[in-house]
Amino acid sequence: MEGNPVKVAAGLIFKDGNLLISKRPKGFHLGGMWEFPGGKLELDESYEICLVREIREELGIDIKVLSEFDEVLHSYPEKTVLIKFFICSLFSGEPKAIQCSDFLWINRSDLIAYDFPSADTKVINRLRLNNNIWDE
Length: 136
Fold this sequence. Notes:
CATH superfamily: Nucleoside Triphosphate Pyrophosphohydrolase
Structural class: alpha+beta
Order of helices and strands: EEEEHEEEHH
Strand content: 35-45%
Shape: globular
CATH architecture: Alpha-Beta Complex
CATH class: Alpha Beta
């Protein structure tokens, strides 16, 4: 696909050994699928600032961005995305489904039970194999 990829920040938000996932609203690209919450960068915005803003808008919580976990360039038929995934912790608040249709806290063995976009496959495989980040 031609053109620049859409730049996206995604949060791997951990709390008490569980990971927060959210469900994309129907009517949007990949609607109804589960994802790691986040969103598109605005002009002149860093990935970290974007992630904090998007998580607050989507779920009403504040997070602390700890470190970059992975980067994925993936082409869908309608667009190409460059997603940077960050390990995060919940700083304050309790999630609410504001700009998503649902959310769940899941454990490592639950990862394979949910329908994620194909761009997330590499990250899901790394998460399933990495014990350390689930315990932090």
